[in-house]
Every structure is written in C-alpha cells, then in structure tokens.
Please model this.
Amino acid sequence: MKTLVVPTDFSSVSVNALNYAVDMAQAINAGLVLLHVYNVPVSFTEAPVAPVTTVSLEEVKRSSVERLEELKKNLVMVTSGKIQIYSESRLGEPIEELEAICKSLDPMAVIMGSHGATGFERMIMGSTTLNAIKHIKCPVIVIPPGTTYHGIKKIGLACDFENVVQSTPVEYIKNIVKEFGADLYVLNVQDKKDAETDWEEPSTMDAVYLDAMLEDVRPNYVQLTGKNVVDSITSFAETNNLDLVMVIPKKHRFIDSLFHKSQSKELITHAHIPIVSIHE
Model:
C-alpha cells in the first residue's frame, strides 16, 4: 500500500500540511501515518544545578497519544473512513524517529509544513524540516503555509544537467509523474542573456542521457535565464501554474545555490508551491 508519513507538532502550519496530505491520499488511494515525536520539557535556572523536568514523562506521553487520537478521529470522520489512517506517538528526537519510521515503512513521501518566517531554514519548518531534507532518504514534500491540494497536473524538475546518470532518481520521478498523470517540466537555469527560453531537444550529453531515462514520461525542457536560481524557478513555476517542484540535493553543487540564504528571499516571500526533495 502507498503510504504518506505526516509529522505533526499540532501547529496550524503542520495541520495545514496534514490537510494537504489527506487530500492527496484520497486522490491516489494512499494510507496516512501521523507521527508526533515528544520529549520531556525541562527547566533551567541560573543556579548551577541539574535541569528539572516540569511534567512527568507519562503526562507528556498521554497528551501526545490523546491529541493524535483526536486528530485521527476527526480525519476518519472527514474522509468517511475511505483511507487508512494510523497514528504513532514516539519519545525521542524528531529526525531520528522520523528516519526510523521511514526505514520501517518505506513511504511514498514524508509531507511536512513550512514556517514562512525569515531565512530559508525557518521557511521549511525550522531545523526539523531542513534536517529532514538533509538526512531522510525518502522524499520529503514541503508544504508552504496556506497551500491546499488541488491535484498535481504539472511537475517541475530542477536540474543542472551534471552527472545525471549517477544522481537522478529516475524511477521515483517517473512513478510520481505517472501516479498523478502529470506533465513533467525539466527546468535548467543559465546565467546567459542570450539563452533560449525553452527548447525541444536536450543540448548536452547529460541532458541527452536524462531525456533517454525519462523517455516514457515525455518531459518538456525549459531553459531559464537568470543570476538567481530560486527566483528563476519560482517565477516559472508560478507563471505556469506548476503544482510541485522536485529538487535533488547534491553536495556543494546545484542544491547549494537553490538553498542558499541569499537566494531564498523570493521563494519565501512569494512562492506557494510545494517542493519535494528527492535524494540521488
């Protein structure tokens, strides 16, 4: 069974991401796993003494379980029981527990909310979501605040056309495109004034390899021009009503420019498009 894992801290942003996940799950007949990771709050004083717990472990655990069950109950009612929904309450560190559940379930994706404050790290649900993108091997879909699910008909794939054979998770990309019956747009950004806006055939060997690997989903190729990768991709995505943009983290390469603080302002301020991070 296809499974979507949805971590929640019960905030409005995470609940919005959960609502998005519920609608997606209904559209593709997937199951949902709600995950809440808790730890015991401690208080610190200026005095050189050990931190003291403010509530008992059992109280924190009971609260986590009860809130998850209430959330699950409401979702079952909203969906009329049409999808399978499970809840998981765990003690520990969020990323470690999320990684463990992903290894156990091998989900189609993790869906998380994003906090649109300042800096790209906060935009993607603070350090938790940023660390999930860095460390969780399964795909992570980041949902901007206020974004609702309206189907996925157009998918963008940000690509630098470098080492595509080794770094492109082709099967996952094709499976997602086929799952939603979507059109795929391969987006490449060049800092050239005379670059073409779009082109029909790939023009480098890596692009040729990618085209061959994605042949059965018939991708569209779009050459974007601009000094700022994020701005260029965001502008195209919003102008052309893309529903999802895929990025592939690469160490010290394309993803660095995409996630660089100085280039994230436009995405944080204006983008309302889910981003899915898929590892090579």
The longest strand covers residues 31-38. The chain has two domains: 3-49+58-143, 154-277. The longest helix spans residues 57-78.
